[in-house]
Amino acid sequence: MRDSRPVLLDTLFDDADLLRNVQQRAIALLKLNKAVKALLPKQLHGYCRVANYRQGVLVLEVANASWLVRLRYEQPMLLSALRTEILPSLASIDIKINPKLTINNQTAADLVRSYTPNASKDDTPMRKLSEQSAEQLRDLAARCQGKLKEKLERLAALAGERVTSTASRNKKP
């Protein structure tokens, strides 16, 4: 039986094998997700993903009930294709509804690229801070004191506008 008691974070970082196993399982699930999507029609790609694989059962998540019905039509073909090509021990496919899939637009390929050790950082898109967010950070910094104020001003400076305090991205106060 699995031990599901809470564990101190320090013990996780002390046990490198545990973290490596978690990372390998996540990468394996992402690759399985890519293989499953290659077998499915294009319409399902954004609304279906692999959630888990254990004890011969593949768990897929879909965005809503209409995509669940569509995937049920594809299930026999998917089951036989996965058994012959990738997972000979696959016994069944379980389909669950996860409404958050409609919100999440990050594809499995993006996740694989960002979490594999040999991925180059140039492939991942850079996040940009909007001017509106920077202005809100400056307003918040005006009401704060000390180190928090400095950190908020430095963060607001990342939007491209100059901050009128002594704290800047390249200088230490």
Class by alpha and beta content: mainly alpha
Compute the separation of the termini in Å: 54 Å
CATH topology title of the largest domain:
GMP Synthetase, Chain A, domain 3
Order of helices and strands: HHEEHEHHH
Cα shape: extended
Biggest sheet: strands side by side, in what order?
1-2-3
Q: Quote the average pLDDT.
A: 80
Pfam family, one: DciA
Protein name: DUF721 domain-containing protein
InterPro entries: DciA-like (IPR007922)
Report on the structure:
The protein is mainly alpha-helical. The protein folds into two domains: 9-115, GMP Synthetase, Chain A, domain 3 (2-Layer Sandwich), CATH 3.30.300; 127-173, no CATH class. 48% of the residues lie in helices and 11% in strands. The protein contains six helices and three strands; from the N terminus they run ααββαβααα. Strands 1-2-3 form a three-stranded mixed sheet. α2 (16-39) packs antiparallel against α4 and α5 (131-142) runs antiparallel to α6. The longest helix is centred in the first third of the chain and has 24 residues, at 16-39.
Feature tags:
173 residues; mainly alpha; GMP Synthetase, Chain A, domain 3; 2 domains; 3-stranded mixed β-sheet; 3 strands; 48% helix; disordered C terminus; DUF721 domain-containing protein; DciA-like
